[in-house]
């Protein structure tokens, strides 16, 4: 009798094990597989309600900004070229949808006539760091916000350097979050890199012309390193980056042959009359001034 109970107990255990296996197999066939990374593949990415659809960032040129300037209402230089672009856009769009943000930085250029100013290297490094931090902070909080970036002169160098880093996969935001970049009078302009919406010019950016003569440049512009062309160009952003240069502007349309290096360096400091005419010069973009084109371009990108 004892043996009979033992046999029955063994049989009962085997039956229970078999039922458990069948239920597990049935469940494994009907239950969905767990998502990779612990996330639901149908989950839609969202961001806080206060985030804007587009942030338009403007980088002013030398002497057109200050480190303590209000990025939403800049007053450091009321004649800043970028104000002729940002103010019409602020009037056009609801700030709840489009944020217009102007880079506040020490936009200076130490030279033999202004030894008290911040050096070009330090100034643009400060501007670049602040610009990159703004994009990084905004993207971290608002991952679906897109960016439009525009810069003039020294601001164009800063904006172009940022676009190059992003386009080549080293930026603080992914390239697909950049709707467009516009560079006006870029000192590192290189023919064939980026798009040209207006007049084609035959020269190059002054930083390309003078790169090989950095040791001489320091005599006129101490602390200004001429860095030449941007390695990798604008990468993935090449088709969305527009380089605008007025013919004979010594900042962006310098001869490839440096010739008299000291004279070229002085021209870099003083620029020329043409460099200050982008808001009125009809030879840059046929049918419109540069600021008019920028307002129209940015409007189309916002409304796309």
From TrEMBL:
It holds the Pfam family Cutinase. Keywords: Disulfide bond, Hydrolase, Serine esterase. InterPro entries: AB_hydrolase_fold, Cutinase/axe. The keyword Repeat does not apply. GO terms for molecular function: carboxylic ester hydrolase activity. Belongs to the cutinase family. This is Cutinase.
